[in-house]
Amino acid sequence: MDDKTIYALSTVYGKSGVAIFRISGKNALDAIKFLTNIDCDNIKSRYAYFSQIHDINGGALDNALALYFKSPNSFTGEDIVEIQSHGSKAVISSILENLGKIDNFRLAEPGEFSKRAFYNNKMDLTEAEGLADLIDAETSEQQKYALRQMNGELKNLYENWRESLVSVLSHIEAYIDFPDEELPDDIVLNLENTVFKVKEDIIKHLSQSDYGEKLHEGFRVVIIGEPNTGKSSLLNTLAKREAVIVSDIAGTTRDAIDVYMDIKGYPVIFTDTAGLRKTEETIEKKGIEIAYEKAKQADLIIALINGEKPNLEQFENIATDCKEKIFYVVNKSDKIDEKQCSEYKKQGFVTISAKNKDGIEILIQKISNKISSEFTESSSALITRQRYREVLNDVFKGLEDFNLQKSIELAAEDIRLAARNIGKITGRIEVDEILDKIFGSFCIGK
Length: 446
Fold this sequence. Notes:
This protein has helices at residues 29-35, 89-99, 112-119, 125-136, 140-150, 153-176, 185-207, 211-217, 231-239, 282-297, 316-321, 338-346, 360-377, 386-400, 408-426, 432-440, and strands at residues 5-9, 16-24, 48-54, 60-69, 80-87, 105-107, 219-225, 257-263, 266-272, 300-306, 326-331, 350-351. By secondary structure, the chain is α/β, with parallel strands linked by helices. The protein has a 6-stranded mixed β-sheet. Strands 8-9-7-10-11-12 form a 6-stranded mixed β-sheet, with helices on both faces.
């Protein structure tokens, strides 16, 4: 990372009411000095100043607000200046052009403001990824969990584990230089208990379902059933648009089709599949194989039944393997009488009419309840990235190898590797802190 001052348009380029430019670096105040009439010698941090924005030669560009955030109390930990101008393309282009003419200024690279915040210890990697998730959030639940991660929920959890291991390592390291002395029994017990507690916490964290990753990527709900049960019609009704082709001709849907939706705040990917039936037609047969495979991989399965001609045999194999995640839904309730509908409901089936949109809200609520119940059962700190899970698996395996009956140097290495691996998640990999732990407990003058 170089020491140049970086700048960028922080809002979307195009016609808008307001455009915000962010400048970060040791020379950030030069943006105010060269482009405004504000007295930089007496400028106050975190105050908004209204001024004309002009080019390097003094030509007027716009009237705008300018704000100064003095280091280290800023997003990046460096001096930051923000200019809030009108959002026309002409104004945006002219301000960017003149920022580029200031000495030691350059256009920021993607994510560079957050990268500088990380390097200046304003955030760790989990918080940075939480910020990225918040920016990308499309549903309320994604927003909620991204905000929790950005505010340090995962960082605090992982850092507590790492600090516990560093503390254990510092005690072990203190005895390595004295091979003739054995660790006292009470210290051995305390160290082993600390490692055991961290190990138990990690395995509990890992044992939760992958709903954190699902919240990030989307929950998969697969619709299966015989031809002409209304799978495509149901998907279009849920999506509130013509997402897939609907036809009375059996076998119209031959491949799995994904449609992304927001269901009560949760990101859900619904998949329409080929109708389940016996066929010798090669392409349709392949589509049916894909339908079964998609169902097995799904988080939830909607087993759609034709209310006029119910057939549950088609679901026997899937029901055996996926009993906990299958919903039986009877379509075409508009074509059957109340008595039949009542019988289906007694069996726990949801009755709907995809055509008339009857029962759709009940189905959506059941899907939402199923997903939210899994969150309630999960730990409050969700694993939101596959890389977290992979690293923590390595940490757990390393701690499984730890014991103080082996060579003390080998025991120390087990803990050192585990602490370093946790640091890969947060980005906090520091060697000197072990020495700080050792000597920090010494008396003054020692």
